[in-house]
Amino acid sequence: MTKVMIFGTQDPLSSVIRKQLLARDETLVLYVPKKNQTTLLDPQRESMFQGDLLDLGRILRGMIGCEIVCLCEMPEPQVTWRIIEAMKLLDLTRIVCLVKPEESFMSDQIPETKTTHKKARSSQMTLSIRMIEEAMCDYTILHLPAFFA
């Protein structure tokens, strides 16, 4: 049985991922920024860890004993850096990232008709992905098909 820490639990896709992991007999730690943001699907094998996404100490405490980190939604670069930092301190090397279609564009590929905010968000996601790729860890980045948008 593997212990997996999941970030991005407010994303609807996370419940699908959680159900699949629970069906495989995994133990899950859900990292949530605010209490009551997520409902546990299986209180026997899921626990919730509440904390600021930039608080390295809280992330470390939540990650203790985990073997895999799963990002159900790509965080901003500052949060990505904190997660990578915590992983390195705990010698945790496996990370899985789910990237939705609107997050996977390079900022210069987004048509001019799209908003500046979307370009900025895409640029941040690209930076987060690059940080993970360069973090010297065992990573999987899943670029999801359009129907997950």
UniProtKB/TrEMBL annotation:
Domain NAD(P)-binding, which positions? 17-146
Q: Name one Pfam family in it.
A: NAD_binding_10
- SUPFAM superfamilies reported in the protein's UniProt record: NAD(P)-binding Rossmann-fold domains (SSF51735)
The UniProt entry's coiled-coil ranges are: none
Can you name this protein? NAD(P)-binding domain-containing protein
The source organism is Enterococcus gallinarum
